[in-house]
Design goal:
With 426 residues, the protein is an all-alpha fold. The protein has 21 helices and two strands.
Length: 426
């Protein structure tokens, strides 16, 4: 057996306790931020988040999705100061302004936006999209998304790793990587939310391959469509369902048979994944005259011929192994996957390699203003499996190796928490 079946709740208390420690740690870290102490939910919808978010107020409050009346935005920027300049959109020749980023995260914000709009009207706040109710409703709502992902990741890890290893992996992934900084500080940015989305996707893939039911692929299709719409580089997520449980010729034929026997499920996945894009196509068509538009024209672009591999791994400016050294264990774990779970090895390894190449090719390889390499944060949900298998392997080795691992992991967690504190309190 290369996997461990889920156990009863009474025998899985360690991992459940670990989830609650993670949740408590994120909530504590978030609410002790200097930003929230001095300006309690006043500056959440700022910088890049403004571009993700403006779809909602410009469409549903101002009836101006093309931002033709720039005076509206100018007045909001004067009052709330979301960024020094309005860089979040660019003007077309027809007078419309197209937001730089796609509308995926606006979907995530939408339930809390509408709740805030209603609440603001009932309690004499300005219904302008940026007053206090919008900031706090969307902030707390997104924090919920961030936290709930850990329950799905726990279920996935329990399926393969067992309770004790799952608990350790959850704790060190949360507190030993730059995920923690993203979750407490940049939580409205893409990466902590996408971490939760990957956790849900892994859960759906695991459940569908165990017991094919439509609901798992419907959810998986919606999640993958939303991730790719929200951040097109997440197209790499398609590797996971394609290669899940495929590791040789026989398993490949078994996967084809499984798909044929449940072809309606696959069609539902595709329909749901594509449906997520329809509002974006309509938005682009109304503003530009074409349903597909390249809105990232003012970004840095990719250097596919010369990826910044060494900088991404080792640069003191910003890199994976200098600022998140715990990932050394994850990388080693990729080489141990075949021993413990050959079913998932091709999917996870190919995902890791393609994702690394893609993100290393980004011209602004240092990932902008963040602690560590924030673009990789969402992939830690997938990488939790090779990390867990390495820890299982180390658990069978000599006491000396186990002791060195314990000391190293403890130091890396302490270092990450200390540097996160430095970064968020600078």
């Amino acid at each position: 057996m290369n996997e461990i079946k889920s156990r009863s709740a009474s025998s899985s208390w360690r991992s459940l306790f670990a989830v609650f420690i993670v949740i408590a740690g994120i909530i504590y870290g978030h609410y002790t931020l200097p930003r929230l102490k001095h300006n309690f939910y006043q500056e959440e919808l700022s910088y890049d988040v403004t571009s993700y978010y403006l779809y909602l107020p410009m469409t549903f409050i101002y009836n101006d999705p093309g931002i033709r009346n720039k005076a509206i935005v100018d007045s909001l920027f004067v009052k709330y100061k979301p960024s020094p300049t309005f860089y979040q959109a660019f003007e077309l020749e027809n007078g419309n302004r197209v937001l730089n980023y796609t509308c995926g995260f606006a979907y995530a914000y939408a339930p809390f936006f509408f709740a805030a709009h209603y609440w603001a009207g009932k309690h004499n706040y300005l219904q302008d999209g940026f007053s206090f109710p919008y900031q706090i409703f969307i902030g707390i709502g997104v924090l919920f998304y961030v936290l709930v992902g850990w329950f799905f990741l726990r279920k996935v890890l329990l399926r393969y790793l067992g309770d004790t290893v799952t608990a350790v992996v959850l704790l060190i992934t949360a507190f030993g990587t730059n995920y923690y900084s993203e979750a407490i500080n940049n939580y409205l940015q893409p990466h902590a939310m996408l971490f939760s989305a990957y956790s849900l996707l892994l859960y759906c893939l695991m459940k569908w391959h165990d017991s094919p039911k439509k609901r798992y692929l419907i959810t998986g299709g919606l999640v993958m469509g939303w991730m790719i719409l929200s951040r097109p580089s997440e197209i790499v997520c398609l590797i996971l369902p394609l290669l899940w449980n495929v590791y040789d010729k026989q398993s490949f034929h078994a996967k084809i048979k499984l798909i044929r026997n449940h072809i309606s499920h696959v069609w539902l996945l595709l329909i749901c994944g594509i449906a997520v894009f329809i509002p974006q196509f309509i938005y682009w068509y109304k503003l530009t005259g074409t349903p597909v538009f390249f809105s990232y024209q003012h970004t840095e672009g990719f250097d596919f011929a010369k990826p910044h591999i060494l900088n991404v791994l080792f640069s003191f400016k910003k890199s994976l192994l200098v600022y998140t050294p715990l990932l050394i264990f994850t990388i080693i774990g990729l080489f141990r996957l075949r021993k413990y779970n050959k079913d998932l090895q091709p999917a996870i390894v190919l995902y890791a390699v393609v994702n690394f190449y893609l993100l290393s090719s980004w011209a602004a390889w240092w990932n902008g203003g963040s602690f560590g390499m924030r673009y990789f944060t969402e992939s830690y949900a997938v990488m939790a499996l090779p990390l867990g298998y390495l820890l299982k392997d180390i658990g069978t080795r000599s006491i000396l190796l186990r002791g060195i691992t314990l000391l190293s992991v403890s130091f890396f967690v302490f270092l990450n928490l200390f540097q996160t504190w430095q970064f968020t309190h600078w």
